[in-house]
Amino acid sequence: MAFGIKRNELKQWKKQVINEEIAFLTHYWLDPRFPGCKTVTKVGCSNIDKLVEWGERYGLEARWIHHDKNYPHFDLFGDWQKQILVAEGQWEQLDRFKL
User: Fold this and answer.
1) How many CB atoms lie within 10 A of CB 91?
2) Of 21, 56, 74, 94, which is most buried with the most CB atoms under 10 A?
3) Domain range annotation of the chain
């Protein structure tokens, strides 16, 4: 279950993904498969080669990409989420979600 984002934030993320930008969207998320994780960051880009190359810099495997309609993305949570958000300078998301 996702919550804690506004409709315009989701629209902006989708627009960036479609425009082949590496786009970040963090939101609250609860999933019993991942106890202790309260947030997830979706990192998307419709250019799969670009997304794979970006992910390789952080040790993410191409097979982990979610091919969700027009919005392919990695789901980041836990230690990887924080480390990658810091490396990418995503300070607003880090502060907002207290990561």
Assistant:
1) 10
2) 74
3) 2-86
Give the DSSP per-residue string, 45-56: -S-HHHHHHHHH
Query: In the 3-class helix/strand/coil scheme, how is 63-87 assigned residue by residue?
Result: HHCECCCCCCEEEECHHHHHHHHHH
For residue 23, the cross-strand partners are 44
3-state helix, strand and coil shares in percent for the chain, rounded to the nearest 5: 40, 20, 40
56 is written with which tokens?
């390789």
Q: How many CB atoms lie within 10 A of CB 29?
A: 18
- What pLDDT does residue 2 have? 61
pLDDT tens per residue across span 15-36 = 999 999 999 999 998 888 888 8
- pLDDT lower than 70: segments of the chain: 1-2
